[in-house]
Write a structure and sequence with these properties.
By secondary structure, the chain is mainly alpha-helical. It contains 20 helices and eight strands. 25% of the residues are buried.
């Protein structure tokens, strides 16, 4: 017989004699020697099960002691089991994981589900950096909006930016309009010092690459091996006078003898001199006439002289029948035409850019001599406005193209950032002078008064108000400096744009063509790398702050 038969349904072992246990208060000795301590019946509630409160058992137990555990807090249902509500990204990961597992099984292998999940996560995450990220982010945002989470949806919608930008770059590549970086040097104009060989004085002169190139090309034309008929001078004088007096220019303007008698007189005199000489006219003779016509300066005489020089270039480019009496080589006329075209283009761009640049410099000097020297923005815009004003553009910018005039107009109007800085500067008293002092003083007084009303002691309030009043116009001056710098830079960019619209720059660009802008590509790469992780982190933050645990995206932290 076993020792535990009484518990297993057998008989008690008669040979086993349990030791006797002395009796104790509230202790009952059983025949087998087991002890049972009877609790005080007057102070302890009847025994109860852990789930009695849910199955109609005994009422709740007495209050717990300081070291007891209240298991009832863990004895709660976890809610209803519902199917998972995946967004587009998680659905793509799940489908891709299933495809990887199915492919591995079809090939006779036993793919690891965890490895398949990691591969799917990696591929979908990489897809966020490509145009594939557009539908994924759009799907995530649509689901968030539909489930009542507009903040999360707005953040997820930002995930489309890398894909949209990549698609935009692909379209630009197909159209040949990718941002480029110029590698050819823009023709420049610099003021340099030189020593006059006659006086020994150190003087200043402008070294303009465009005008130098123009003179070089005109010099090649002047040395061309061909001759013109002796009467070409008279014929050209009559042709030029007729066109000046009767044919409107691009601005609808005619220049009769009454407004430019000096130009008319030079044409007649020079034509008669060349005809009286009785020898063939050389290209150098006509080049001297061109230089004389361009020496009239500004005003009606200058406009008539410049136009007569243009007529002369066209006359030499396409001379009338019988005007050329000798050509030293078969291709000499092509040589003359090519150099005339380059010379005229460089001269036009150089003189137009020079006029704009001189106006910028003049306005800078005018501003510098003022008391505050802070009004460079307005002064520069005013000067450029006069250049494109219909009253002045005919005489001051006769060679400016439509696009160049529109570029100047944009500088006069200003962009949003420049105008915003200018507005803030005016509001903060950044113009200098008594106005800035009055605005600063009034602001400081108001600030001190408000602080005092809020309970700040009078000395501290007055000190803070004085500091704030002194800083306000200084902040305005900083904004004024920003607007000044942006306006001058924009104006100088227009000058460079005009200089690049020249045969000299086009020749340089043919040797050193532009390349894709590495800085634009770098900015794109930074955006591609930063936006998806930033969106994921922001979504996780909104989940932790606003979304119930059950509705959070897979992989987000559940930490409160």
């Amino acid at each position: 017989m076993g020792r535990f038969d009484e518990f297993l349904g057998g008989e008690r072992d008669p040979t086993y004699d349990a030791p006797e246990v002395p009796a104790a208060p509230n202790v009952q000795t059983t025949p087998t020697g087991r002890l049972y301590v009877a609790p005080p019946s007057a102070t302890v509630a009847a025994p109860q099960g852990r789930f009695d409160e849910f199955i109609g058992g005994t009422p709740p137990r007495a209050p717990l002691g300081p070291n007891d555990v209240d298991w009832s807090a863990y004895n709660k249902p976890f809610g209803d089991v519902k199917p998972i509500d995946q967004n587009a990204t998680e659905a793509a990961k799940s489908k891709l994981q299933d495809a990887i597992l199915a492919t591995g099984a079809a090939l006779g292998g036993k793919p690891d589900p965890y490895m398949a999940k990691d591969v799917a996560d990696t591929l979908v995450t990489m897809g966020a950096f490509t145009p594939l990220g557009v539908p994924l982010a759009a799907g995530d945002a649509a689901q968030s909006f539909s489930t009542g989470h507009p903040i999360r949806g707005t953040i997820e919608a930002l995930g489309v930016l890398p894909g949209v930008q990549m698609g935009r770059r692909a379209y630009q590549w197909a159209k040949g309009t990718l941002p480029t970086l110029r590698t050819a040097d823009t023709p420049t104009r610099v003021i340099e010092k030189y020593v006059d060989p006659q006086t020994g004085l150190t003087l200043a002169r402008a070294n303009d690459e465009l005008l130098n190139a123009s003179r070089l090309n005109y010099g090649k034309v002047a040395q061309a091996d061909l001759d013109f008929h002796p009467n070409v001078g008279v014929h050209f004088a009559q042709t030029a006078q007729n066109e000046l007096a009767n044919v409107p220019d691009i601005y609808g303007r005619v220049l009769p003898r009454e407004v430019a008698p000096g130009v008319y007189g030079l044409l007649e005199r020079r034509g008669q001199e060349l005809a009286a000489r009785g020898t063939p006219i050389t290209p150098n003779d006509l080049d001297i006439l061109r230089q004389q016509l361009r020496a009239f300066g500004q005003g009606p005489e200058g406009a008539a002289g410049a136009r007569a020089a243009e007529i002369l270039d066209r006359y030499m480019f396409n001379p009338p029948a019988g005007a050329v009496t000798r050509m030293g080589a078969p291709g000499v006329m092509d040589f003359v035409r090519a150099n005339l075209e380059a010379a005229r283009g460089d001269y036009r761009a150089g003189k137009t850019a020079q006029t704009v640049e001189q106006e910028i410099d003049r306005r800078g000097l005018k501003t510098a001599k003022a008391n505050s020297g802070l009004n460079l923005d307005n002064t520069t815009r005013s000067g450029l406005e006069q250049l494109i004003d219909p009253k002045f553009v005919k005489s001051r910018l006769p060679g400016a193209t439509y696009d160049e005039q529109q570029a100047i107009r944009k500088v006069v109007e200003g962009d949003r950032a420049t105008n915003a800085a200018r507005y803030l500067s005016n509001r903060l008293g950044g113009g200098g002078g008594i106005g800035g002092s009055l605005i600063g003083g009034a602001s400081g007084y108001g600030l001190g008064h408000v602080l005092s009303a809020w309970g700040v002691d009078p000395i501290s309030a007055a000190t803070i108000g004085a500091i704030g009043g002194a800083l306000k116009p200084k902040i305005g001056e900083a904004f004024r400096g920003v607007s000044n710098e942006r306006t001058v830079k924009a104006a100088q960019d227009v000058v460079d744009q005009i200089r690049r619209n020249s045969p000299l720059y086009k020749a340089r660009e043919a040797v050193s063509p532009p390349i894709p802008d590495p800085f634009a590509l770098q900015r794109d790469a930074i955006a591609y790398a930063m936006i998806p992780p930033a969106v994921k982190g922001a979504v996780g933050f909104t989940n932790r702050a606003n979304v119930p645990y059950a509705n959070r995206d897979e992989g987000e932290s559940y930490a409160p």
